[in-house]
Amino acid sequence: MEIKESLRAIESTIQRAKKELAIGEQELRDYLQEHKKEIDIDIIRFYYWDTSLKTSIASDVLGLKKAASFIGKARKGYGFEYPCCKCGNKFKYYPKLGEVENNILLIKDDRICYKCVSEQQQREYNAKWGISSQESEERQRVYEQRLNALKYMPYPEYLKTEHWKEVSQRARKRANFKCQLCNSSGLLHVHHRTYENRGQENNSDLIVLCEKCHAKFHDKKVVE
């Protein structure tokens, strides 16, 4: 009987917490709606980096295109010029959550530029598998040819490639097979935020959207 009573008490606590969460989220919606015209990119950056508030709520209130654009800028546009600890060249470093405090990048001395990371990984890989420098250069040449083919082929053809099938499926998996704006499941599309890195997309270049949200991005109507 004591265990059952404890479980009932825990259940009641969870139910109260859910109700309080729902009330809090509604307060957030109301506040954002009231101050909608005052919300600029700095506020969105603060919202994204310095709070744990749901970005989907901002998307609902601010409007899909505006919120998606702002959230993309909050991540991509928040880069810092930082010297590489290997080559000394400055590069654009995009911080992770927890690495920024009051718009200041927390200091670390071990940040390496992407070029040095790539070269270091290649050297380690070659050493592990006994690959000569000549063979490595040939592989790099083949890789660059393949990348150029992916980058410049007609886009409808690109969407049929095995590369895109793998990249888009990984994006869906990262999103837990849910739309990253409205949190719905079902038929999911992977949308390019930017085509700059086509053929070697970064995770932040892509967003997973349901059919309705994807249609809104392209100003199309979805047939119900």
What does this structure look like?
- The chain is mainly α.
- The mean pLDDT is about 80.
- It starts with a helix and ends in a 7-residue tail after the last helix.
- It has a domain at about 1-75.
- About 10% of the residues are buried.
- Helix content is about 55%, strand content about 10%.
Summarize the structure.
The protein is mainly α. It has helices spanning 2-34, 41-50, 55-62, 64-76, 114-129, 133-152, 155-158, 162-174, 211-217; strands at residues 80-83, 90-93, 100-101, 104-105, 188-192, 206-210. It has a domain at 2-76.
Summarize the helices and strands and which ones pair or pack:
Elements: H1 2-34, H2 41-50, H3 55-62, H4 64-76, E1 80-83, E2 90-93, E3 100-101, E4 104-105, H5 114-129, H6 133-152, H7 155-158, H8 162-174, E5 188-192, E6 206-210, H9 211-217
Antiparallel strand pairs: 1-2, 3-4, 5-6
Helix pairs in contact: 1-3, 2-4, 3-4
